């Protein structure tokens, strides 16, 4: 019997996983600091996905712990101090894995939602 | 490689958040906001900094640490919630203490006879013992020569050592005292893997030739008591059985010899047997193949089965029997596991301990059913709390876990206190056994060690889990809706059935226990009432060994003659005598093989009989009837013709009757033909439940022994007689130690030791089981009453009277009691055969025992139901209704 009440339930797992993927995606274009990552996700999702610090920074710690990103203090273009995150090779691989899983999921959900248009769908 | 981080770098993280806020604020300022608003808006967008930090910390914290923290929280919560209900907590801990304490105690006993019988020896339960057995099933030691041949020739044992238990005396005169000793072969210590704490152990070189090695290894206990932990003990001389022996070593403190139930304190080479007085000083003891000296012991080689070892031994035995100096054909060689050894007390103790083990498990079952009942009731009354937790989002697993943790929080102290109970109780048992066995020192490997600790804790946890789990699972299945709708009053036949089931189970098991206790108590009554063939009341038993003050035979004879003259001269003494062994001696004494006038034994027939060496007036003093001929008289001494008195069984079995036996002759082991002058009535010689057996008596003055027991009989209270006898001995020789002085009835109590002990333990078990069952029934009935207060109120408001309410509850309680009792009786009928080996004078289906148990159980249930029911009947209807 698993006795881990501290385990986040499935709902937040999905969110975490998705956020992690979005962060990795953002870092594909090069090292970024936390604030910029949040802003990028927001801009890219046409302001739909607002990433709070409360989710973003723990997510970055999680990725750092797994060794998918490394962090280093540096200067922004406007000469402000910031911590920049960079994808590691392992992180790049992880992103590719997550991206393909994501598209599978989207496909699958799409087929369920619109059975008629799905290739090979019955009736 | 970056260094492995185990924790969040807090300062760095705060720094990063500050940087984030600074950038965000700067951006807002660039968009035209004023700095103060910009900072606030950036902070607002960021969210809660503390929570974020906490979440980031959690990322780094290892999972098990979280789990542990959760567990600790559960434990803390459980303790808090139990502290709110101390009566419940104390009851459960108390019940568990009792249940686990009894089980730990019994397990410790089982350990001492079967699991780990020898202290200080690893794997002693795997030892095997070799002995000879006659047609009549008599178990006899192996002769030294046969032992040597077996040791040389056998392939089944890793090593075969021999040992012989003797009671010796150490020192002489006033300070002399008795010690248990083993005469052992030189490989004894090596084969057992026992080391010396000082000096050396005995070695094979100490067994070189008869009489050549006067050495001894003493026990740690003897070294401490008699030699005051003398650091220079090795090389000193001690006098044992009037022979000077050099101490070559002190054995490991944990080692107490290989004779279960005796504390062996001296280990002497078997080659010193003659000097130690084995066989009455007969010089051919070690070379005579008919004289049993040792029980060979050893570990079987790995891969050798007991059957293979036995068949090998048999074929070797056959070969030995055909040797030029043939071994006795009358014997078979047997190999048995150590727990069946004829050498120690384990064979007699095992049936008792097995019965106790079964019974103690039953007590534990009742205890668990009891706790399950308590937990169920408590869980039901906590429905509100649990519903609230479920409503707040706790998972059911979480709640079950919490309830189980609560049980464990109760189980662990229960186990520990149970162990304390055992540790306190066992010395009392030892003291009792010591008192029965005095002057011998008793030792049983019944220390509370890790094995017992682990056993108790496992038992406790299993109890807590198994019997806490079901109720816990049930209570987690609470439907939120039903609790909200119905308040705290639970419905559901299932839970009611469970409670009823618990009552039935407790009643059934306690009935079973009480039947067992009843059967054994009745056996004890029967055994006490049974006539042992002699009158034990008003007779003294004062044990002496004149060799302890270095008397030789002529002086010893003179001493005993004068002692008898002195005590007989006392007007308060009706009769007095001396005897080698008392009747009802518990352990069989050494037998003598005899030849009988006019009786031709079948080939291999066992004519070895136990015997006694007694003074004149023996039969009168002990109240043993003389059926034909005469008793011994003063004139039967070494100047007169050798005579013998046989018992009725011997006379009838071999000569066809008491009168026919008179004048016949019997040849004893010392090769003298003795004329039968009398036939005495049968006596229970060792144990009260023994079958009649042939036995004979030889007069003391024709067969001298240094160690005798003085019996006196008189009208005064026996304590006075004992003191008087003591004084008489001291007046003759103030330096002669008295080994033991007490009444004959005390001396023969040992014969009932296991029955006594079993009856006492089972009585405790029965009472404990019954008390638990009554408590459980009471608790569950009063709970039901509480639940139905409202209903009772309504009924009474509608005109029901008190007695009808009492009747309703009583009816239900007694119905459950009756079902439980019925199951208990069936179970008892099926299980009492287990007791067969320990019962005396009652059958396993003894009606009186069953009836008594039934009355006690139903009476208990009746009371346990009546009290809460009566309370219910006094319910004020108005208050009951208002209450809801």
What tags apply to this protein structure?
heterodimer; A: 123 residues; alpha+beta; Arc Repressor Mutant, subunit A; 3-stranded antiparallel β-sheet; 3 strands; disordered N terminus; B: 884 residues; 12-stranded mixed β-sheet; 8-stranded mixed β-sheet
What can be said about this structure in brief?
The complex is a heterodimer of chains A (about 120) and B (about 900). Chain A contains four helices and three strands, in the order αβααββα.
Query: Would you tell me the overall average pLDDT of chain A?
Result: 79
What's the CATH superfamily of chain A, by name?
A: Winged helix-like DNA-binding domain superfamily/Winged helix DNA-binding domain
Largest interface: A-B, 25 and 34 residues
The Cα radius of gyration of chain B reads 37 Å
Total number of domains of chain B: 4
Number of helices of chain B: 26
Task: Count the E strands of chain A.
Answer: 3
With helices defined by DSSP (H or I, 4 residues minimum), what is the helix count of chain A? 4
As for the number of domains of chain A, it is: 1
CATH class of chain A: Mainly Alpha
Low-confidence stretches of chain A: 1-14
Biggest sheet of chain A: strands side by side, in what order? 1-3-2
Q: Overall 3D geometry of chain A?
A: globular
- Report the strand count of chain B: 26
- What is the CA-CA span between the terminal residues of chain B? 70 Å
The whole-number mean of residue pLDDT values of chain B reads 85
CATH topology of chain A: Arc Repressor Mutant, subunit A
């Amino acid at each position: 019997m698993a006795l881990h009440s501290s385990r986040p339930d499935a709902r937040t797992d999905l969110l975490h996983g998705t956020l992690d993927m979005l962060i990795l995606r953002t870092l594909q274009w090069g090292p970024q600091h936390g604030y910029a990552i949040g802003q990028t996700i927001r801009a890219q999702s046409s302001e739909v996905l607002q990433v709070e610090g409360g989710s973003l920074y723990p997510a970055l710690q999680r990725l750092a712990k797994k060794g998918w990103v490394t962090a280093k203090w540096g200067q922004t273009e406007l000469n402000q101090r910031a911590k920049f995150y960079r994808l590691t090779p392992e992180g790049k691989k992880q992103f590719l894995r997550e991206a393909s899983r994501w598209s599978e999921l989207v496909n699958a959900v799409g087929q369920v939602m619109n059975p008629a248009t799905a290739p090979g769908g019955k009736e | 490689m970056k260094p492995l981080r185990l924790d969040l770098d807090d300062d760095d993280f705060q720094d990063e958040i500050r940087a984030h806020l600074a950038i965000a604020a700067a951006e807002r300022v660039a968009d035209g906001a004023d700095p103060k608003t910009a900072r606030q808006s950036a902070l607002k967008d960021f969210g809660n900094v503390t929570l974020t930090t906490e979440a980031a910390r959690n990322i780094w914290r290892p999972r098990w640490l979280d789990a542990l923290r959760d567990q600790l929280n559960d434990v803390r919560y459980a303790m808090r919630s139990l502290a709110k209900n101390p009566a419940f907590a104390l009851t459960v801990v108390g019940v568990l203490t009792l249940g686990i304490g009894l089980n730990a105690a019994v397990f410790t006993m089982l350990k001492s006879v079967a699991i780990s019988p020898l202290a200080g020896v690893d794997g002693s339960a795997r030892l095997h013992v070799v002995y000879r057995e006659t047609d009549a099933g008599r178990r006899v030691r192996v002769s030294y020569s046969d032992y040597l041949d077996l040791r040389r020739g056998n392939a089944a044992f890793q090593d075969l050592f021999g040992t012989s238990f003797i009671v010796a005396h150490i020192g002489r005169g006033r300070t002399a005292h008795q010690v248990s000793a083993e005469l052992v072969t030189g490989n004894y210590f090596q084969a057992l893997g026992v080391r010396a704490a000082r000096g050396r152990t005995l070695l094979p070189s100490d067994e070189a030739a008869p009489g050549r090695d006067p050495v001894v290894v003493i026990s740690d206990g003897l070294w401490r008591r008699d030699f005051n932990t003398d650091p220079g003990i090795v090389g000193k001389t001690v006098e044992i059985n009037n022979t000077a022996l050099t101490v070559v070593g002190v054995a490991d403190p944990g080692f107490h010899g290989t004779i279960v139930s005796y504390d062996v304190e001296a280990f002497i080479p078997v080659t010193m047997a003659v000097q130690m007085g084995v066989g009455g000083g007969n010089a051919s003891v070690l070379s005579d193949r008919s004289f049993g000296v040792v029980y060979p012991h050893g570990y079987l080689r790995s891969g050798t089965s007991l059957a293979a070892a036995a068949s090998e031994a048999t074929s070797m035995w056959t070969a030995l029997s055909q040797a030029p100096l043939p071994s006795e054909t009358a014997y078979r060689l047997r190999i048995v596991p150590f727990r069946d050894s004829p050498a120690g007390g384990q064979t007699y103790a095992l049936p008792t301990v097995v019965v106790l083990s079964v019974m103690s498990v039953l007590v534990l079952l009742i205890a668990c059913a009891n706790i399950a009942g308590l937990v169920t009731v408590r869980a039901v009354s906590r429905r509100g709390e649990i519903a609230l937790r479920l409503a707040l989002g706790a998972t059911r697993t979480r709640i079950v876990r919490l309830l189980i943790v609560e049980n464990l929080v109760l189980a662990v102290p229960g186990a520990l206190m149970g162990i304390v109970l055992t540790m306190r109780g066992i010395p009392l048992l030892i003291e009792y056994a010591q008192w029965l066995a005095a002057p011998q020192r008793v030792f049983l490997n019944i220390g509370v060690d890790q094995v017992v600790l682990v056993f108790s804790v496992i038992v406790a946890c299993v109890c807590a889990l198994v019997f806490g789990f079901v109720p816990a699972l049930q209570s987690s299945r609470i439907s939120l809706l039903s609790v909200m709708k119905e308040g705290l009053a639970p419905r559901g036949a299932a839970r009611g059935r469970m409670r009823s089931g618990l009552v039935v189970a407790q009643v059934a098991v306690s009935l079973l226990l009480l039947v067992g206790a009843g059967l054994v108590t009745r056996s004890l009554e029967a055994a006490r009432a049974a006539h042992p063939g002699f009158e034990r009341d008003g007779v003294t038993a004062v044990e002496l060994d004149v060799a302890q003050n270095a008397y030789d035979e002529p002086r010893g004879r003179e001493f005993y003659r004068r002692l008898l003259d002195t005590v007989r001269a006392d007007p308060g003494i009706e009769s007095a005598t001396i005897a080698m062994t008392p009747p009802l001696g518990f352990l069989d004494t050494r037998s003598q093989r005899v030849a009988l006038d006019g009786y031709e034994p079948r080939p291999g027939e066992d004519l070895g009989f136990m015997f006694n060496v007694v003074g004149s007036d023996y039969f009168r003093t002990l109240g043993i009837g003389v059926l034909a001929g005469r008793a011994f008289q003063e004139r039967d001494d070494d100047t007169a013709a050798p005579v013998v008195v046989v018992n009725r069984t011997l006379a009838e079995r071999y000569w066809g009757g008491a009168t026919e036996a008179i004048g016949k002759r019997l040849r004893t082991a010392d090769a003298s033909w003795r004329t039968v002058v009398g036939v005495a009535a049968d006596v229970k010689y060792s144990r009260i439940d023994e079958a009649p057996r042939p036995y004979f008596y030889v007069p003391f003055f024709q067969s001298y022994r240094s160690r005798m027991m003085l019996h006196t009989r008189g009208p005064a209270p026996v304590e006075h007689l004992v003191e008087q006898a003591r004084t008489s001995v001291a007046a003759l020789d103030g330096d002669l130690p008295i080994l033991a002085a007490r009444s004959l009835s005390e001396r023969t109590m040992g014969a009932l030791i296991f029955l006594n002990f079993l009856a006492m333990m089972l009585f405790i078990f029965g009472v404990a089981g019954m008390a638990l069952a009554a408590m459980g029934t009471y608790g569950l009935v009063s709970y039901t009453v509480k639940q139905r207060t409202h209903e009772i109120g309504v009924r009474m408001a509608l005109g029901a009277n008190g007695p009808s309410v009492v009747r309703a509850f009583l009816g239900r309680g007694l119905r459950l009691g009756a079902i439980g009792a019925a199951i208990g009786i069936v179970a008892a009928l099926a299980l009492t055969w287990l007791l067969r080996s320990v019962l005396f004078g009652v059958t396993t289906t003894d009606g009186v025992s069953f009836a008594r148990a039934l009355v006690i159980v139903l009476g208990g249930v009746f009371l346990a139901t009546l009290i809460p029911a009566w309370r219910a009947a006094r319910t004020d209807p108005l208050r009951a209704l208002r209450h809801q």
